[in-house]
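Schema walkthrough. Field components (list of strings):
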Amino acid sequence: MLVPLGESATIRNAETICESLLAAFDEHGDVELDASAVVEADLSLIQLVAAARVHAARTGRRFALCAPANAALEALLRRGGFLTAPSPADRAFWLGEEQGR
Amino acid sequence: MSGVGEGQDPVAAFRVEAADLLDGTEQALLDLTHDLGSRELIDTVFRGMHTLKGSGAMFGFDALAAFTHHCETAFDRVRKGLAPATQELVAVTLSAMDHMRALVEVQGQASGAGLAAAGIAAAGEAILAQLHAAIGDTAAPPPATTRDAATGNSDGGDAGEAQGGWRIAFRLPADAMANGTNPLILLDELRDLGEAEVVAQTGAIPPLDVLEAQECHLGWEVTLRGPATREAIEDVFIFVMDDMDLRLEPLTAAAPLAPPLPAAAQTPAETPAQTPADRPAQTPAQTLAETGPARAARATGESVRVPAERLDVLMDRVGELVIVQSRLAQLASGGINGPAGELALRSISEEVERLASELRDTTMVLRMVPIATLFGRFRRLVHDLARETGKVIELVTDGESTEIDKTVSERLADPIVHLIRNSCDHGLEPPEERVAAGKPAGGRLRLAAEQAGGEVLITIADDGRGIDRERVRAKAEANGLIQPGQVLADGELLQLIFQPGFSTAAQVTNLSGRGVGMDVVKRTIEALRGTIDVTSQPGRGSVMTLRIPLTLAIIEGLLVRVGEGKYVIPLAAVEECIELSLEDDIRSRGRSMIQLREQLVPFLRLRELFDTGTRPDAFQKIVVIATGGERVGLVVDQIIGSHQTVIKSMSCLHRGIPSFSGATILGDGGVALILDVVQLVALGQQQEERLRAAG
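Field assembly_structure (string):
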C-alpha cells in the first residue's frame, strides 16, 4: 500500500504519520512511502522511517520509498549525518542506489 | 496527515516565545546596569541570546539568528573574562534587543531584499559595529573565529584543550525534540567550531509499533578537528546537558573510536517485549502537555498563561457540572412524577445555580495576570528616558503580584507609558536643579499597584517639582477653558490638565509630545470604566492614581427600552435620569438640548438613532451620561432598572458598528446591546457643534 506524505512531515504530525504507517502495515502488509511532496521535514521523520524499516524487517514485510529521497529530504539526511558513512542498505533505501557487492 | 498541526502556526508560537525571551533578557540587562560584575546576570543574558538564536534558526528566522549570534558571542566573551561588562555594552545590547524585536516582527512580512530596503539590515550593521566596539573587538570576526578566539584562552588546562580535535559521542534526552531542541542546530553549532564529520547512530531506534514518535532515539558521533576547547563543545549542549549522554575524547592520530554510547532508550533487540503500556506512565502525558495544548495556546496571537492549579479547580467544577447534567437527563427521561420528582428538579436547579456562579468566578480568575508583566515593560522605558534626558531616575515598583484582567493590563500599557513619560520629562528636575532645591540628585519614580475591593489602584508618583498651578491656570485661561480669574478648587484646577490640547511644557520635547495625550489617557482609562485622579505638591512631586475595575467581563448596567429593543447603559457612566415631557420634546425638536442646572446638555433620541420605527412613549426619559467631563443625554422610552450585565463581545460582522460595545443575554433569553458611552458622548458633542455652527 502506498502511504503519501504531505508537504510537512515534522514532529508536529509525527504521531499521525506513525499511526498511518502502522495501519498500512496491519491492513496491507507491504508498505511504500511516498515522500516526494515533502518540503519541510525534521529528524522525527527520519527516525519514523528508520523505525518502520526495523518493524518491516522484524515482521517479514517490505517497506520502501516509492522514489529516491527528494532534495529536501536528502539535504536533511546529509545535515543530520545519515549519509556520511551509509551502509549499502541505507544508500539503497534512501537514494535508490543499487547495493554494492 | 494534514490534520495534525492544523490551526497551530509555529511562526506565531515562536513570536510569543521570542517576545518572552527578549523581555526576560532585557530585564537581566537592566539589572546588569546596577551590577556590572554579576556573573549570574551575564550568564542569564548569554543564555537568553543563545536560546533566541537557536529557536530563531529552527523556525526559519535566519536574519534574527545571525544577528543574535553576534550578541551571544559578545556576552560569551564577557562571561569568559575576555571583555568587560560596561554600561556602553549594556546600552548597545538594549538597542540590539529592539532590533531583534523588529526582526521578529518583520520576518515573514518581507523578503530578505525587503528587509534591506526597509533599512533594517543597515540599522543592524550599525548596531553590530557599536557592539564590537563596546567589547573591544573591532574586527567583527566571523562566528567560528570568534568562538575559537574566545575559547583559546579559557582555562588553558590540558583537559580543556585538544589541539588535534575531539571525538564527540552524544545522545539527547528522549524528550529533547518534543521540548523544542533541534539536534540539527546542535550539529550546525559543532560544525561552527571546526571541521566536523557527523555520523548519525540509528541502532537504538525501536520498531514502529513501540516507537513514541516524538521521542528522540537518535545518537551521533562527531569527529571535530581544530582547536576547539572542551568548554566550547559543552556550551553547544548547555541547555540539554543535565539529561543527556555526552562523551568527549581528545583526538589523536592513534585514538581508537569512542565506544558507542549505550542507547538512551531500549535497543531494538529488547523492544518487542516492551509495549507502550510498559513505558513510564508520565512520558506520553508529559509530551502531550508540552507539545499539544500548551503549544496550541501559544500559537494564538492572544495567549495567557494560567497556573495549573487554577485549571484543576476549573476541571473540578466542570466535572461536577457533568454529574448534575446526567442527573437532569435521568430525571427528564423518567419523567417528573409527584413531589419527589419536583424536589429532585429543584435540587438540580439549585446545584446548577451554585455551579454557574462558581464557574463564573473560576473562569474570571483564569484571565487574571500579575501586574508585574505590565510593570516590567516600564523599567526599560525609564532607563531610556533617563539616558535621553540626562536625569538620574530610580524606578521603584510595589505590589507587582496584584492581579488584573489580561485585556485591562494590555490596554493600560499606553496610558501608563504616557504618564511615566510626563513624570520623567516634566515632573522630575535635572540633577543640578534638584540639588539646588535640597533634594537628592537622583529623582524617584514609584509605580505601585494594590487591590481595593473590585478595583485595582495604580499609582504613578514622582518626587519632582510638582504641577505648576499658575502655569496651568494661565494656559487654561489662554485656551478659553476657564474664565480669567475664575475661582476653582485645587482638584478642579489640576483636572484641567486632562482637557484636550492642554500642555504646560514651556519647552516641547520629543518625550511628552505636543500636549496631546493627557486627554487621551483619561479617555482610555474611562473606556476601561476606570478613573484617574491627580494630586500634586509644589516642590515635592505629583501622584497620578488610576482606579481600574478588576475585570471587564461583568458590569453593573442600567437596562432601558428604546422602541421594542432593550439596551444596557454602563451604570458607572450614568449621572442622572430625568423625564422628557411631551412639551419639552416638542419644544426641543431641531435643537435637541436640555437645560440642566443652568447648563445646556445635548441629547440624542436613541429611537431615531436606531431607527426603531416606533412612536415615542408618552413619558420618555433622558438618561444623562458623562465621560471626561462631557455630558450627553440619551432619550429612551423606558428605564427598566439596574442589571448585572455579563458582557459578550459582538460577532465579527457587528464588531465595527459604532454606538455598541458588546451585548448581553437577558434572563428571558433575549439579547440586549450594550451602549458605547464614549462613542455616544462624542456623537452628542458633534451634534452640538453642528448646531452651533448652523447658528
